[in-house]
Structures are given as structure tokens and as C-alpha cells.
């Protein structure tokens, strides 16, 4: 056979496999509001950048007449492409081929690109759209999942791992996304759960729809399993590209710097912060008053909203920002917000991203529910994460910093490199009202006019302790600054920290309060 004939044969085979489950199955996928797997990769990646691998891989199952079936590409497309002209390792499950079910060879295609990602130091992006384990392959399907989970864990902290849920992701399959760094979901398309509605109805007699059990809103607003919510697949892919613009490609490098830009003038601190210390404001406006071009990329916006996390830039360099949100529960720390912040802090530390912490909170949320939900253990996670982090850590105390909350929010005592405070900062064991009621309990009770004496004592305590100067006089705060100088102070601190080195005692690993 001539070379030309060989090439015709090759192109014919490639074209046949590339149609996946066939035109009818593709149309059914489109009718469900979903893009076909290959279209998804075209939208996600730079034009003409995708180089497919393992196109001709086939399953090796012979049971249940599987030996008579051919599954194009074994239901998953794998390879290397690029985003922002930088290489990424990708896989996309093809629901048109046997429902995207995962057998051993399907899994081996995925683990191969995972191994590539780690060796090459490039991010891994996985598009999940699968009915789950391929039942005909029995335990080999489970083995495939296990090999993926193992690699997810080994790759953690080495290269960014991004999961995109664009269809069902049920049973054991959900644990791979759970082990990755960022999970993206799309309204009415993404479904994640361990046991589906039918199992729940059979076992518990409870009826619930797939959407209400594990839809996109549930995963971004209630469970915190997903980090980004989109109305459409196109919006989702744009979110991924935006995320990729902020982060480094591996733990071997820093995030790429861009041309610095000043914040937008509309974000004026004096107009953002209320004159009364008890009135709330939006911490995101403070962040936008500080960062380049007022461009803040928020993560997990809809879950545990009493703390805000995300990426921004200072003088062109990426920073991770953690800030209490006074608009929600006065910015307290609780079970969920502690988990949210701790995981983000560890991500930034793993990938050489400096941390900026903005503090304004009355402490940890009190209550039986929180105590019984394990706020002690969850709250300890944020202490652990900050203490463990060795990237530059910069802290600005805006208003309240009371009790354990003061310590937890990257205080000097947890290793902050620079601590700034605004003149409006109140750094104390607790708020003036509570402190005066305890310290002067007897004096207030014995007074002829307890209310007047209480007000006097609250004022006395406020003047003496509810300010930044006591902490500054003890060296716990480096500088009390004009709020308008915050951006300059942080940029100065970042420059000073550029070559930071911090050594720790040798150990196999720590034991975080999971």
C-alpha cells in the first residue's frame, strides 16, 4: 500500500473516531443545552492549539458482549493544548460514547495526561461529563477511579488542577473534582452527588430532584464543593481563562506579572468606610480601592460570604486576598468561612502567591450550632494554614480585630511579615461593651444609675484599649497608616519580601485539623 493510501486510511480512521457517538448522539447532547466534547475543547483552548493523544485507544472488556462493541476514543478525549499561549494538559469526557462511562482504559488515558502535567509542570484541566463507572468492566472501573484519585493527590500543590463539571458527575466520580483545586459548574447542566435521587428515595423515602440535590446552585451556595458558577458553558470557559491569567503554571514558578495599573478613582476609602464603627460596608470595595485597575477575581462568591477570597494584582503582581466581609454576619469566622479561607491560604502558599489579609471582625461566631458543628476544629484550620504558609504575608487591620479573630486573621503571632493598622482599628480581647460589662460588673451593679455608669465605662475602655496604638506600642503592629497609603504600603512590603526565605524544622508532613 502506498503512503498516500496509508494516509487516506489514517484520515478515515481519525474522522470516524472523531465523530464520537455519532451525529444522532451529538444532536441529543446539543438538545440538552450541552456542547459536544470536542467543541468544548475548541472554546476552552487557544485556536488550533490542541494536540490529541491516544485517539485509537480501545477498551479491553470482553464480558456482556463488550467485545462486539467499539467505543470511539473509549469515551474520553485527551491531549495538550494552550491557554494564553501556555501549554495545559486536558481531558474531556464524551457523553455521546457510552454515556462517557469510565472503564480502565478510559481512566488510563486520563492518568497519562495527569502524569504529563506533573512532569512538564503544566496545569491539568478535566471536563467531567460521565454517567459513572462502566458497569460491564466491574472492578476494573473502580481501579481506574482509584488510579485517578491517587494522581490527584500526588499532583496537589505541584500543578494547578481544575475540574469542570458539564454533565452528571456521580458516585465515586465526584471525588476526583473534590481533590482538585478549583471546580467550575454551570446552571442546569452540572450535577454532583454521591447517591442520586433514586437511591435516596429507596433508602430514605425522601424525594428530591437532581437539580435540588446536587445542581450548580446547590454546589456553589450550600455545600461549597464548587468554586465558580456560570449561567452557560461559554461563560464557564471564560471564567477558567480569567483564573488562568492570575495563577502560575506550577509550584516551580511565580504567577506572570503584567503592566501595573492604578485603582479606579470611584473606589474612595473615605466614601466606602462608614463613620460609625458598627455600620457595615462591602470589603470588596476596599479591595478594589487598593488593587491594580480595581480588578478583583473573587472565588466561592456565593458560599460562606462572611469571608471574601480571591486574586488581584498589586503593582502588576498576583496576590491572594483574604478579607472579612462586614456585610455578612459582621464578618465573623465560623465553620464554613474558616474552611474556605484555610484552603485558599494553602493554595496560595503552595503556588508562591503572596497573601494580603484585610481584617475587620468581632471574632468567631458564638452559638450551640457552631460549637456542635465543630467550630473549634474548623476554626483551627485557618490558624494552621496561616502559620504553615511561608509566602510573604501582609496584614491590614481596618476596624475590629477582637479576641481569637484578631489572632486568626494573620496576626504577627502567626508569622505575618508586615502588619499595618488604620487609625480606625480596634484591637482588643473583645468589644468595649462586653469588656466594660465584665470588668466593671460590680461597679455598674452598685451604681444608682447603672446605664450612665455603663456608658462611662464603655467610653473609658474604648479610649484606653479600642484603638491600634496599644498593639503598636507592643510591636504587634508595624505601622499605623493613613488608609489612603494602604496600596503604597502593601507594594513596599511586597518588594521588601521578594526574596523572602523561611526555614522550618524537617518533618514528613504536618497534621492539619482536617
Tell me the helix content. 25-40%
Model regions low in confidence, pLDDT < 50 over at least 5 residues: none
Largest sheet: number of strands, sense, barrel closure? 8 strands, mixed
Distance between the termini: 62 Å
Query: What is the mean predicted local confidence, pLDDT?
Result: 94
Query: Which structural category fits the helices and strands?
Result: alpha/beta
Number of helices: 21
| Approximate shape | elongated
Radius of gyration: 27 Å
List keywords for this structure.
alpha/beta; elongated; 7-stranded mixed beta sheet; 514 residues
Structure in a nutshell:
The protein is an alpha/beta fold and 514 residues long. The chain has 21 helices and 17 strands. The protein has helices at 3-18, 23-31, 37-44, 104-120, 139-155, 175-179, 197-204, 210-214, 216-222, 233-246, 269-272, 283-290, 335-350, 368-372, 375-388, 403-408, 432-439, 441-446, 450-465, 469-473, 486-496, and strands spanning 51-53, 76-83, 86-93, 124-128, 161-165, 168-170, 182-186, 191-193, 228-230, 297-299, 307-314, 317-324, 355-361, 393-402, 418-421, 426-428, 479-480.
Amino acid at each position: 500500500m502506498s503512503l498516500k493510501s496509508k494516509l487516506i486510511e489514517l484520515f478515515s480512521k481519525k474522522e470516524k473516531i472523531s465523530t464520537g457517538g455519532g451525529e444522532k448522539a451529538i444532536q441529543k447532547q446539543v438538545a440538552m443545552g450541552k456542547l459536544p466534547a470536542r467543541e468544548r475543547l475548541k472554546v476552552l483552548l487557544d485556536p488550533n492549539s490542541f494536540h490529541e493523544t491516544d485517539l485509537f485507544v480501545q477498551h479491553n472488556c470482553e464480558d456482556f458482549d463488550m467485545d462486539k462493541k467499539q467505543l470511539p476514543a473509549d469515551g474520553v478525549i485527551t491531549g495538550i493544548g494552550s491557554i494564553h499561549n501556555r501549554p495545559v494538559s486536558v481531558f474531556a469526557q464524551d457523553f455521546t460514547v457510552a454515556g462517557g462511562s469510565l472503564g480502565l482504559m478510559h481512566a488510563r488515558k486520563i492518568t497519562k495526561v495527569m502524569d504529563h502535567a506533573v512532569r512538564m509542570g503544566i496545569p491539568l484541566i478535566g471536563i467531567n461529563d460521565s454517567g459513572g463507572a462502566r458497569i460491564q468492566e466491574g472492578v476494573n472501573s473502580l481501579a481506574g477511579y482509584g488510579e485517578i484519585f491517587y494522581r490527584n493527590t500526588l499532583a496537589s500543590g505541584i500543578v494547578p488542577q481544575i475540574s469542570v463539571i458539564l454533565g452528571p458527575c456521580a458516585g465515586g466520580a465526584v471525588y476526583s473534582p473534590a481533590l482538585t483545586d478549583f471546580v467550575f459548574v454551570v446552571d442546569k447542566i452540572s450535577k454532583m452527588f454521591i447517591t442520586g435521587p433514586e437511591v435516596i428515595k429507596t433508602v430514605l423515602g425522601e424525594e428530591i430532584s437532581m437539580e435540588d440535590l446536587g445542581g450548580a446552585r446547590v454546589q456553589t451556595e450550600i455545600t461549597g464543593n464548587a468554586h465558580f458558577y456560570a449561567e452557560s458553558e461559554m461563560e464557564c470557559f471564560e471564567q477558567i481563562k480569567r483564573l488562568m491569567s492570575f495563577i502560575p503554571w506550577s509550584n516551580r514558578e511565580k504567577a506572570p506579572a503584567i503592566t501595573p495599573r492604578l485603582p479606579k478613582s470611584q473606589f474612595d476609602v473615605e466614601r466606602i468606610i462608614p463613620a460609625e464603627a458598627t455600620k457595615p460596608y462591602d470589603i470588596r470595595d476596599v479591595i478594589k480601592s487598593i488593587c491594580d485597575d480595581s480588578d478583583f477575581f473573587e472565588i466561592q462568591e456565593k458560599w460562606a460570604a462572611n469571608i471574601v477570597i480571591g486574586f488581584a494584582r498589586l503593582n502588576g503582581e498576583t496576590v491572594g486576598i483574604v478579607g472579612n466581609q462586614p456585610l455578612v454576619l459582621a464578618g465573623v469566622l465560623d465553620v464554613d468561612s474558616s474552611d474556605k479561607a484555610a484552603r485558599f491560604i494553602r493554595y496560595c502558599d503552595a503556588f508562591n502567591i503572596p497573601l494580603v489579609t484585610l481584617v475587620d471582625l468581632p471574632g468567631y461566631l458564638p452559638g450551640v450550632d457552631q460549637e456542635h458543628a465543630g467550630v473549634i476544629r474548623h476554626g483551627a484550620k485557618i490558624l494552621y494554614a496561616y502559620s504553615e504558609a511561608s509566602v510573604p504575608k501582609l496584614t491590614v487591620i481596618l476596624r475590629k480585630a477582637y479576641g481569637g479573630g484578631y489572632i486568626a486573621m494573620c496576626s504577627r503571632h502567626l508569622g505575618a511579615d508586615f502588619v499595618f493598622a488604620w487609625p480606625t482599628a480596634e484591637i482588643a480581647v473583645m468589644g468595649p461593651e462586653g469588656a466594660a460589662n465584665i470588668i466593671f460588673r460590680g461597679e455598674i451593679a452598685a451604681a444608682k444609675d447603672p446605664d450612665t455608669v455603663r456608658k462611662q465605662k464603655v467610653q473609658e475602655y474604648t479610649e484606653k484599649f479600642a484603638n491600634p496604638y496599644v498593639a503598636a506600642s507592643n510591636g504587634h503592629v508595624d505601622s499605623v497608616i493613613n488608609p489612603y497609603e494602604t496600596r503604597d504600603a502593601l507594594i513596599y512590603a511586597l518588594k521588601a519580601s521578594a526574596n523572602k526565605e523561611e526555614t522550618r524544622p524537617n518533618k514528613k508532613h504536618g497534621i492539619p485539623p482536617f
